[in-house]
UniProtKB/TrEMBL annotation:
This is Type 1 glutamine amidotransferase-like domain-containing protein. The keyword Glycoprotein does not apply. The lineage of its organism: Bacteria. GO terms for biological process: proteolysis. One of its GO terms (molecular function) is serine-type peptidase activity. InterPro entries: Peptidase_S51. Keywords: Glutamine amidotransferase, Hydrolase. It comes from the Bacteria.
């Protein structure tokens, strides 16, 4: 299984991690697909991401979202490509769309076949067991999503956009790190606190860390 979990793909570390994975999997010169967390009617986010990938030798030539931009035929076209990018955005809305279109198993099968799933921020959290960590980076469940189960492809939980110097700040109640510890204990999974200069790559099942993510291990919690 090949996964890349990024806090910010446009950071220096994000670029380095993506370049590493593309090289490791021999994807340079290939095509890829893009799944947006919500509709992008003007295509601004899609085009910016296309340009970024073009600089790495990937033609991101298929767009899809799970709302009004959804089409079964386009979804199949996307799944025929060796790389799919899951965008950032509203994590709860993204997962609601995934559930409403019932595309979980298709993406799981895609990953199991050895293709690369790249998740950025919200997209990265979708690759993990659940998106409860979205609340730790400021997302609000404005769509009223009750089922927070994600794709369960990575055996970990992911918190993006962490400012490590502030993760212990308790001025607004429980610190981000304390809340991460609660989630690690509840789910029996490690929680990776990642700044925009951190990234996680899973290549053929082996985890590679970029930057200096802070790891909360469940067995270390009394």
């Amino acid at each position: 299984m090949n996964l890349l979990l990024l806090s910010n793909h446009q950071s220096a570390t994000g670029h380095k991690a993506l370049a590493f994975v593309i090289e490791a999997l021999g994807l340079k010169g290939q095509v890829g697909g893009y799944i947006g967390s919500e509709p992008d009617p003007e295509g601004d986010f899609y085009r910016a991401t296309q340009a970024f990938y073009q600089g790495l030798g990937i033609n991101l030539n298929t767009y899809l979202d799970f709302e009004r931009g959804f089409n079964d035929t386009v979804m199949q076209t996307l799944l025929d490509k060796p790389l799919v990018h899951l965008s950032g955005g509203d994590t709860y809305r993204f997962l609601r769309g995934l559930h409403s279109r019932n595309q979980q198993q298709k993406l799981k099968s895609y990953a199991a076949s050895g293709h690369l799933l790249v998740g950025v921020s919200a997209g990265a959290m979708l690759l993990t067991a659940n998106i409860e960590t979205a609340a730790l980076c400021g997302d609000s469940n404005t769509v009223g999503l009750e089922n927070l189960k994600a794709l369960c492809l990575a055996d970990l939980l992911f918190v993006p956009h962490v400012v490590h110097s502030q993760s212990r700040d308790q001025s607004h109640g429980l610190s981000q790190k304390q809340r991460a510890k609660q989630l690690a204990k509840r789910h029996g999974l490690p929680v990776y606190l990642c700044s925009d200069e951190d990234a996680l790559a899973i290549i053929d099942g082996r985890l590679h860390c970029f930057g200096a993510p802070e790891i909360i291990m469940p067995e270390a919690i009394a």
